[in-house]
Design a protein that fits this description.
This protein has about 550 residues and is an alpha+beta fold. The chain has 18 helices and 21 strands. The protein folds into 2 domains: about 10-50 and about 330-445, Alpha-Beta Complex (Flavocytochrome C3, Chain A, domain 1); about 85-145 and about 220-325 and about 450-515, FAD/NAD(P)-binding domain, CATH 3.50.50. About 35% of the residues lie in helices and about 15% in strands. The structure holds flavin-adenine dinucleotide (FAD). Flavin-adenine dinucleotide (FAD) binds near residues 142, 146 and 226. One of its GO terms (molecular function) is oxidoreductase activity.
């Protein structure tokens, strides 16, 4: 056997995993996995072990449309944060905006890019303002796949039922209906634009099952589907330089209304020269993604650096209700070792291909494809309550995800070929995941809910749309794998098309105002809230006191 990439302290446990592997392989080949839990048992383990079912770490919202809701502390703090903008200071600047556009899209990830393409098709001028570079986004990082019911024995009906069950029956049915019905069209659209999906030798789509699915409907591109989709959407947008203007390193810090209460634009903050930019727009689409970088309950995260929930803050200040935000999605399989990769996603595809989670003794303890929230809770139970986790030299704890099973089931070379990116990421640290398992623990992954929208991405503010992870309802309380990449395309496209129509119809705009911000500040004062932080956060601050002490100012 080749040299192990793990330290001596983990070798005893690794030997036990090797010992039990051949027996587990025999069972896996016969599709005999650890028993699934019943719906009643789901509820029991979720309430006992899922981080978001515990009452601790929560704070009541005291202002806004969701006043009274008990949300995660980190989320409540940004929703009740101190704005960057002092309304009076902008009186003059609102009268002479720096930029005029028909449709302003805030966020240059997947949803924003899909929206930009559909909006520009209608002949309006489009501006995309994004926090970092175009494509620096969670979309770029997606690994496993995108769902669409397009095989003969599948149908949007089954897709709907799977997602509804996975969401604990709390999904908005109209949104879910739009999601599953548009899905085959979205796959065709992406393929026409140039997305290279994995194919069978006869040219048909290669499709796999995922957690919570009753049919094979996961379309993939090795384990880099997000990078492939983002590559194509970004190219398409950037090819339309005459129609779509891109402002990079320009996060939105506040939205603007006009005097009638219709959307009016946004104030951006240029991270390069630290100047504010006032943009007047006939329609605005929020596509800012999720809040994974808030590290809820102190968990590690899979998310990109700019995922700080900004869109939630901007929309909430305008009075848009939030939904399905009680439970965040913790992905069951985040890397625990090596330390540099802590929190990094290990795609669900690894389990889809047959790798099982096993404890420090090499024993199975859960079905490998329970819904994500349940699987996470079971891993936490194994480590915390049963003490069957594996402790790393830095004190992190996790269980093994037995990836060598994949080559043993599907043939030598499968891991390297099908999980190419994960293979290389671990190889860099001397771990060959086709020979040795990965150490994993749940990691903060996805926002589940967000701003309320209808099936066209419209919010309650005329002319303001939201699409993608910033919005809520389509996935209910728990998203299934592959439905978010679908969501961003379905609702990005819908919002883009509708926003363009709205902009075309809107002939004249009244004066821009920040009145909603004045009211929000008043509400904070009335509720005696002293904001803990400035929000939107824009970028998370990882400096410790020692580092800060050495810095200017
Ligand atoms: C590691 C990983 C793997 C995943 N794998 C899958 C998968 O296999 N299948 C699946 O369906 N889903 C997957 N997901 C989820 C999915 O990728 C995301 O939910 C989805 O891509 C979000 O798209 P979005 O356009 O809404 O947000 P993003 O792609 O995150 O884009 C949001 C953009 O808005 C920008 N932004 C943020 N705040 C502001 C602001 N104030 N002003 C301007 N711009 C701003 C951000 O910088 C970013 O560019 C995965 C997620 C991660 C993190």
């Amino acid at each position: 056997m080749s040299k192990s990439g793990y330290p001596e302290s983990l070798q005893e446990s690794l030997a036990k995993v090797r010992e039990t592997r051949s027996k587990r392989i025999k069972l896996a080949k016969k599709q005999r996995y650890y028993d699934r839990l019943s719906p009643n048992e789901y509820q029991k383990v979720l309430h006992k072990y899922h981080p978001d079912y515990a009452p601790e770490g929560r704070k009541v919202l005291k202002v806004g449309p969701n006043k009274g809701d008990l949300l995660q502390k980190e989320l409540s703090d940004i929703l009740q944060g101190q704005p960057w903008i002092v309304p009076d200071a902008f009186d003059k600047r609102l009268k002479s905006p720096d930029l005029n556009t028909d449709v302003l899209i805030i966020g240059g990830g997947g949803a924003g890019s899909a929206a930009a393409l559909l909006a520009s098709e209608q002949g309006v001028n489009v501006t995309v303002a994004t926090k970092l570079r175009h494509g620096d986004a969670n979309t770029m990082m997606a690994e496993g796949g995108i769902q669409a019911a397009d095989l003969p024995y599948d149908s949007p009906y089954y897709h709907f039922l799977d997602a509804f069950g996975g969401g604990h029956f709390t999904n908005d049915k109209n949104l879910l209906r739009a999601l599953v019905l548009d899905a085959p069209l979205v796959i065709q659209w992406l393929e026409t634009l140039g997305v290279m999906f994995d194919k069978e030798t006869d040219g048909t789509m290669k499709e796999l099952k995922g957690g919570g699915l009753c049919r094979r409907r996961m379309h993939s591109s090795k384990d880099m589907i997000g990078m492939e989709i983002m590559r194509v959407l970004r190219d398409e947008v950037q090819n339309k330089v005459d129609k779509i203007k891109i402002l990079e390193f320009c996060p939105a810090v506040e939205l603007l209304l006009d005097e009638t209460g219709t959307i009016g634009g946004a104030i951006l903050y240029n991270l390069d020269n630290q100047e504010f930019i006032v943009v007047k727009a006939k329609a605005v689409i929020l596509a800012t993604g999720g809040y994974g970088r808030l590290h809820l309950h102190g968990f590690a995260t899979t998310n990109h650096y700019g995922a700080t929930g900004d869109g939630l803050v901007l929309g909430y200040r305008l009075g848009i209700p939030l939904r399905n935000l009680k439970y965040a999605q913790f992905h069951p399989t985040g890397a625990v070792f090596p330390e540099q990769s802590a929190g990094m996603l290990i795609t669900e595809k690894v389990r889809t291909l047959g790798a099982e989670p096993v404890n420090c003794d090499g024993e199975r303890f859960c079905h490998p494809l329970e819904p994500r929230d349940v699987e996470s809770a079971l891993i936490i139970r194994e480590c915390v309550e049963r003490g069957k986790g594996v402790v790393t030299p830095t004190g992190r704890v996790g269980v093994w995800l037995d990836s060598p099973m994949i080559d043993m089931i599907w043939g030598e070379g499968t891991v390297e070929k099908v999980l190419a990116s994960k293979y290389l990421q671990f190889k860099r640290y001397g771990i060959d995941i086709s020979q040795e398992p990965m150490l994993i623990f749940p990691t903060l992954h996805y926002q589940n809910g967000g701003l309320s929208i209808n099936e066209w991405g419209e919010t309650i503010i005329p002319g303001l749309f939201a699409a993608g992870e910033v919005s809520g309802g389509v996935h209910g309380d728990n998203r299934l794998m592959g439905n978010s990449l679908l969501d961003i395309n379905v609702f990005g496209r819908r919002a883009g098309a509708k926003a363009a129509v709205f902009a075309k119809k809107r002939k004249r705009m009244k004066a821009l105002t920040l009145r909603h911000l004045e009211e929000y500040l008043k509400a904070l004062k009335m509720a005696k809230i002293k904001p803990q932080i400035k929000s939107p956060i824009i970028l998370p601050d990882y400096r410790n006191q020692e580092a800060k002490a050495k810095m200017l100012g």
